[in-house]
Amino acid sequence: MARTKRELLQNHLGRLIDHELGPHDRLPTERDLAEEFAVSRMTVRQALERLERERRVYRVQGAGTFVAPPAITKSIELTSFSDDMRSRGLLPGSRLRIAEDVPAGADIGFALGLSPSASVVHIERVRTADGEPMCLEHTYLTGSVVPGLLDEPLGGSLYEVLRERYRITLVRAEQTIRATVLDQATAELLAVPAFSPALLVERTAFDQRDRPVERAVSTYRGDRYNYQIALARPTIH
């Protein structure tokens, strides 16, 4: 049975990704692919969007479409606070306290691979579940990759904003979790007594181009939040 032009295009793109190009290599332009396979640019765009959903490629506005690196298997999924709360059957929310451009400084600059003087977007929010405070979240994002972010609504999932406006998908993270207690100011924001137990979560998240994009420092109420980690004993040969 003869293959359609769309099938030939999809097979060609799959062969390029699997056998001819490496991670972060650029695919041919939509125009070139449309001319080569005698299809509309809309057909090409739909094929590329499908590959993007499958995380086989990523798209950079104004630059083109690139081969995504192989997926990394993780024992803990990288999810937004909003997705995490929804998975628990809770309604996520936010109380925005600060949204500003600031110099990265030494610690944030080191985490994001930036000069201390480089600009980052700092967002401070109290994250809620069914209206109840759950954590105080400080998020720092590389300013050069999210121009105009402060003009966006910041009450929902930042990961959704990054994905929909900037075509940035955070695919892996380096994270530490440690026990702490709440100082007076943070305890008041989270509606618990001072010196209550809490979890301090520090995370650097990387996008599909393996760039550090987000540094998040979140303080979670210890009485309402926990991490579940699945462990497996390695096979002994």
From TrEMBL:
<dbReference type="Pfam" id="PF00392">
    <property type="entry name" value="GntR"/>
</dbReference>
<keyword id="KW-0804">Transcription</keyword>
<keyword id="KW-0805">Transcription regulation</keyword>
<dbReference type="InterPro" id="IPR036388">
    <property type="entry name" value="WH-like_DNA-bd_sf"/>
</dbReference>
<keyword id="KW-0238">DNA-binding</keyword>
<dbReference type="InterPro" id="IPR011663">
    <property type="entry name" value="UTRA"/>
</dbReference>
<dbReference type="InterPro" id="IPR028978">
    <property type="entry name" value="Chorismate_lyase_/UTRA_dom_sf"/>
</dbReference>
<dbReference type="Pfam" id="PF07702">
    <property type="entry name" value="UTRA"/>
</dbReference>
<dbReference type="InterPro" id="IPR050679">
    <property type="entry name" value="Bact_HTH_transcr_reg"/>
</dbReference>
<dbReference type="InterPro" id="IPR000524">
    <property type="entry name" value="Tscrpt_reg_HTH_GntR"/>
</dbReference>
<feature type="domain" description="HTH gntR-type">
    <location>
        <begin position="2"/>
        <end position="70"/>
    </location>
</feature>
<dbReference type="InterPro" id="IPR036390">
    <property type="entry name" value="WH_DNA-bd_sf"/>
</dbReference>
<protein>
    <submittedName>
        <fullName>GntR family transcriptional regulator</fullName>
    </submittedName>
</protein>
